[in-house]
Design brief:
Strand content: 15-25%
Strand order of the largest sheet: 1-2-4-3-5-6-7-8
CATH class: Alpha Beta
Number of helices: 8
CATH topology: Rossmann fold
Length: 264
């Protein structure tokens, strides 16, 4: 019995140690005009350089959801950089303000590109990062950002958009211009994404000969990776709902994409 207890305690200690190794540090930077406040998240138990992933938040801004997702990527062997797309780490606690913040970026492609590229540059200069192996992940609004950056030919090996809105505000890419492998992970019942948006996206990516996949999860609606989505949906009468199955399956698909594209 004593041996079993000691073994269990050792196991718990090892798990705690593993989690304690993941560090999260604030990073203040600029897009040339605006002060941004992001975060770098990495496992400091590993000394070797590793791939990096730029992470773009939902329309609410930098919330606990994006921090949790960044830690998961750090535990998988990446350095994650949480980009601040609104400046000064602004957040919204209601849909009206969230729409205003996200709209201020999506309606101005120059601002979107400047802020994303500034975050990518910060990630690339981190001591823990191999700057030749960088990808991007976005959720909701952030999904639209990373898809637009892929369309714009950003220097990314792979991008994954979770419950990505499909507002395309960058010019249609020329053949061969898209460098990233693209994965779109959306709810099949997401009312925020229209069939004609999928058609337009496919048309552009096919013409550009882009490497892309779209996976839709039956029964899933918007924000299915966010455990707080169901309560937010009820609070604001929005079609938001956490879906554990879609969350797990989509994360597994993204893990495969990044392992193949960044860990080779």
């Amino acid at each position: 019995m004593r041996t079993s207890i000691m073994g269990a305690l050792c196991a718990i200690a090892m798990v705690a140690s593993a989690h304690a190794a993941v560090k999260e540090e604030p990073v203040t930077y600029t897009d040339g005009e605006t002060t941004m406040k992001g975060f770098v998240v990495y496992d400091d138990a590993t000394q070797a350089k590793r791939p990096g992933i730029v992470m773009v938040h939902e329309w609410w801004g930098i919330t606990p959801h994006i921090h949790t997702e960044a830690r998961k990527f750090a535990e998988q062997g990446y350095t994650a950089f949480i980009a601040d797309m609104y400046g000064d780490a602004k957040t919204a606690d209601n849909p009206k303000d969230a729409g205003a913040l996200s709209g201020s970026v999506m309606k101005n492609p120059k601002v979107m590109e400047q802020r994303f590229n500034a975050a990518r540059e910060q990630l690339a200069k981190q001591a823990s990062v191999n700057p030749q192996r960088i990808g991007a992940v976005g959720y909701c609004f952030g999904g639209a950002v990373v898809l637009n950056m892929a369309r714009a030919g950003a220097d990314l090996a792979a991008v994954a958009g979770f419950h990505a809105t499909l507002g395309l505000n960058t010019p249609a890419p020329a053949p061969g211009a898209v460098k990233a492998k693209i994965l779109i992970l959306n709810g099949a019942d997401d009312p925020f994404v229209k069939l004609e948006q999928y058609d337009a996206l496919k048309k552009d990516f096919d013409a550009a000969k882009a490497d892309y996949r779209i996976i839709e999860y039956p029964g899933a609606v918007h924000a299915f990776t966010n455990p707080e989505a169901t309560e937010l949906g009820k609070k604001f009468n929005l079609p938001l709902r956490y879906d554990a199955k879609a969350d797990q399956e989509s994360k597994a698909e993204a893990a495969k994409l990044f392992a193949a594209s960044l860990q080779k």
